[in-house]
Amino acid sequence: MADLKKINDQLSIAGQLTPAEIEEIPQLGFKSVMNLRSPAENGFLPEEKQQLEALGIPYTLTPVTLPSLNETLITQVVNLIDNLPKPALIHCGSALRAGYMVILYQATKEKMTLDAAKQYSLELGFDFESKAPLKQPFENYLNKIS
Questions:
Q1: What is the CATH number of the domain that holds 26?
Q2: By the 8 A CB rule, do 34 and 91 touch?
Q3: What is the pLDDT of residue 105?
Q4: 133, 64 contact by CB (below 8 A)
Q5: What distance, in Å, lies between the first and last C-alpha atoms of the chain?
Q6: For 62-68, what is the mean pLDDT?
Q7: Nearest in space to 92 (alpha carbons), one of 48, 18, 134, 36
Q8: How many independent structural domains does the chain possess?
Q9: Which of 18, 72, 84, 112 sits CB 3.0–4.6 Å from 117 for a disulfide?
Q10: Sign of the Cα pseudo-torsion (118, 93, 9, 53, in order)
Q11: pLDDT band at residue 1 using 50, 70 and 90 as cut-offs
């Protein structure tokens, strides 16, 4: 899988999966997949759920779009990630939303301060300071939990 990024032993992120990559999921050791794409997005793979379930891999579709990004949705996704069978693969179109949600999940679990979460995100290669639509919800959420 070309753009797979392992965050830790429990969570990895990726961009949109191809049908061939979906077939690799069990061999890679993943126990579940969460898709953050909206079915209306260009390139959404409608057969992903059926393909994964045929392989015995639980699938969760929870669309995260920039206009819908708020504390309620972030909390919902964080809770869903917490309950996924691990190791889990979280993906979206380019892995940006997936990275964002996994970082917020880790920050919540580890009770990180905003500064610690920003440093953690930079260590993983994500700079939310430069992503204006993500920066404010990221900061607002972390300020509420820390």
A1: 3.90.190.10
A2: yes
A3: 97
A4: no
A5: 35
A6: 90
A7: 36
A8: 1
A9: 112
A10: positive
A11: confident
Alpha helices in 65-127 (DSSP H): 71-83, 96-109, 114-123
Q: Are strands 88-91 and 32-35 parallel, antiparallel or unpaired?
A: parallel
Q: How confident is the model at residue 133 (pLDDT cuts 50, 70, 90)?
A: confident
> Which range marks the domain in which residue 115 is found?
5-145
The average pLDDT across 27-36 equals 97
Residue with token string 């899988």: 1
Q: Average per-residue pLDDT in the chain?
A: 93
- In this prediction, residue 145 carries a pLDDT of 81
Distance CA 99, CA 84 (A): 16
Distance between CA 143 and CA 54 in Å, rounded?
41
